[in-house]
Amino acid sequence: MEGIADVPFASTSLFQPRKPDASEIEALKRKGDAKTLIRLLSHPDFDVQWQAADALGKIGVDAFGPLKETWYTTDLPTRLGAIEAIGEIRDPRAMPYLSGMIVRDEHPEVRWAAAIALGRMGREDGINPLVGALTDPDKYVRYGAAIGLDQIGWTPGTGMEEAAYLIAKQEWTAAEQTGNDAAESLERVLSDRDPGIRARAAEALGTIRGPVAVRACDRVLRDPDPGVRWKGVLAFQDCGVPLLQLPMAVSHRPKSGPSPYIAGFLNLLFLGLGYNYLGKWWGFLLFQIFATISLLAIPVTGAPLPYLILFFSAPYSIPFAIHGWWIGKHIPEL
User: Fold this and answer.
1) What is the pLDDT of residues 201-237, one digit of tens each?
2) Tens digit of pLDDT for each residue in 70-82?
């Protein structure tokens, strides 16, 4: 594909390309110049990107051929704009492309856009990939799949499909009412990157109290986020773990706080940075004082800075290193 520099009104300088106005993009649409519009999908200005995508969609099936050439480009804005245009064109030849992308693409934005485009297609052969995307690791993709299924007019065939659909839309109360059908989907979203999602799933699993909830209880109590762990403590008193065992279960959580050893090491070599690492605002001020004294000592002693740090300042920093380690050791993580 040719670069943006080949667009007639784009700058070839080191500065940002000139932004074409709406009338120029409209002229390209009337002309049916899909290739130039595709180049504009990678323009730095977002307004130009979406206007170009909208124009490509309104060109219709005549733009489908050039759009196919963008399917495997590495430029993310171009891919997203092309998917938007394809969803507007609704050419059935794009179905295998969109269905494969929603399953295999590494970018959640692309899978999300593909889900929305499949919904706009309104075709029944888009249902299976969209139902599969209800279990995607990314919450945006799951939501896009649910909206896409709404556009097709899909009705869940099983209780588990209904539960996955409700969880994808974050309709937690309705999902809880599906009972054990929701348990596996709730357990799956305990891996979501958003701690808010994990916390709400923990609450729902505690309400369901099924076998999966028992299995998920230990996992929630070991979550790296303290908010999710607390939701687990509140929600899972009836999941099969005796109340007296909750502290032991929580103690197996991964340590997510600052390392006391790193704090001590930083204070030893760069006095003050260890405190700064632990979140003490005055740590950086102390480091500035240390750095200033070290720099002033160079012309006096004639020694290079590394030598000063290792053999001159380090012995005096040992108490601060121990103190930084002690503070880090006693920072609560619950």
Assistant:
1) 888 887 877 677 777 777 777 788 888 888 877 776 6
2) 887 888 899 999 9
31 contacts 58 by C-beta, under 8 angstroms: no
Better pLDDT: 212 or 308:
212
Per-residue pLDDT tens over the stretch 83-106: 999 999 999 999 999 999 998 899
Tell me, what's the pLDDT at 167?
95
Distance of alpha carbon 124 from alpha carbon 209, whole angstroms: 36
Q: What is the pTM of this model?
A: 0.71
Supply the CATH classification number for the domain 155-256: 1.25.10.10
In the chain, domain spans: 1-89, 155-256, 260-329
CA neighbor of 325 nearest in space, from 285, 277, 286, 282: 277
